[in-house]
Amino acid sequence: MMSSPSLTQTETVVLKPSYRLPIALAIAALPLGWLSLWAGIPVGLFALFLGIQSATLRLHFTTSALEIYRGETQVRVFPYADWYHWEIYWPAVPILFYFREVNSIHFLPILFDPGTLTECLTRNCPRKID
Hints:
29% strand
């Protein structure tokens, strides 16, 4: 069920995609490609990859877990009970989302609305002070 982040705790919030990072990388690849194809091509391909990921991946915030979907298929589930810490790097220009679980660390590029992401994280998984 799709909803806005300001609704009750019993509803799932699905983050909208954001194409800012792939577009910025594609724009950066143009002058890099002009200077050196060996620099521009990998950056351009990475921008294309992130654009495809933006179009296909969705984050679902439920009452108990962050769920990642590709289309209708659930790819991963990260229960909030296993989280130690989360962080959004460079909040003014958010490009990277980090969270630490009991047994692993995850880094995700920001391919979704960063404001809604922050609101959902704050509501569902408050930061723990060590």
